[in-house]
Amino acid sequence: MAKVLFRAGVVIVVGRRDDGRILAFERRDNPGQWQLPQGGIEDDETPTQAAFRELAEETGLRASQVVIVGEHPEWTAYEWPEDIKALKQRSGRGRTNGGRIIGQVHRWFFVELLDPATEPRPDDDEFADWRWVEPVWLVEQVAPMRRAAYEQVLEHYRRADD
After folding, report:
1. For residues 23 and 132, is the Cβ–Cβ distance under 8 A?
2. CATH level 3 topology of 3-161
């Protein structure tokens, strides 16, 4: 029997302390669907290194332009819907080390821009647009499979600012 696995990744919350808004990005493949920068952790990376790499790749924001102000104390997990599992299996991206990947687990990082005037440059591959939003708005705009994790972590983020 094949092992069932979750792919390890990171999610980066770029926030502003002055108004509690966070930076959200609109998905190119699903207009109207917004999310945070995220991606997998490579074999030779720590979660922190992966967070800085993903942030730069997807938003153009470099490690020198942000400061980590926190990290969610727990990993979050979600299973992919059946259609995504099937698509990933067919493409070969859903298999690894004799196992079958069925979802993702994430380590979440909270960062702030060192210069509030800095603007991201979406990669134009995964993301098409960006805006500063209220966390509760983003929870409603994210893909349903991610919603519970976003709600849990962004509530933690909101309480940390109180």
Report:
1. yes
2. Nucleoside Triphosphate Pyrophosphohydrolase (3.90.79)
Closest CA to 158 of 5, 12, 17: 17
- Length in residues, the chain: 162
C-beta of residue 106 within 8 angstroms of C-beta of residue 149: yes
Q: What are phi and psi of 15, to 5 degrees?
A: -120, 165
Domain map (residue ranges) of the chain: 3-161
CB 50 within 8 A of CB 42: yes
pTM, 2 dp: 0.88
pLDDT in tens, the chain (162 residues): 557 688 899 999 999 989 999 999 999 999 999 999 999 999 999 999 999 999 999 999 999 999 999 999 999 998 887 777 666 666 666 555 556 778 889 999 999 999 999 999 998 889 999 999 999 999 999 999 999 999 999 987 766 555
